[in-house]
Design goal:
The structure is a single chain. The chain is mainly alpha-helical. It is built from 3 helices and 2 strands, in the order E-E-H-H-H. It has 2 domains: about 30 residues, no CATH class; about 40 residues, no CATH class. Helix content is about 45%, strand content about 10%. It has a two-stranded antiparallel ribbon. Strand 1 and strand 2 form a beta hairpin. It is elongated. The protein starts with 6 loop residues before the first strand and ends in a 6-residue tail after the last helix.
Length: about 80
Amino acid sequence: MPDIVEFVYKCDLCGKKFKGDNESKARSLARECETTHDVVYVRLLRSDVQRLLAFISSGERELLTETLVKTLRSYRTLR
């Protein structure tokens, strides 16, 4: 019967892989890595994400709606 040699878990944010002969240790190392990233989740409508991406590639300011700008500005005081 085959033996388990190692387990590999990957951080969803940076892609770094964590290996271990113990599944729980490899998983906990990957989760610990995820918690060390300085991530901010911004609630945006799908249409606002599309407008933001279009603005980034084209630079057309009229793509930025008042709601989108207001939402993004609410995050400017992050520390």
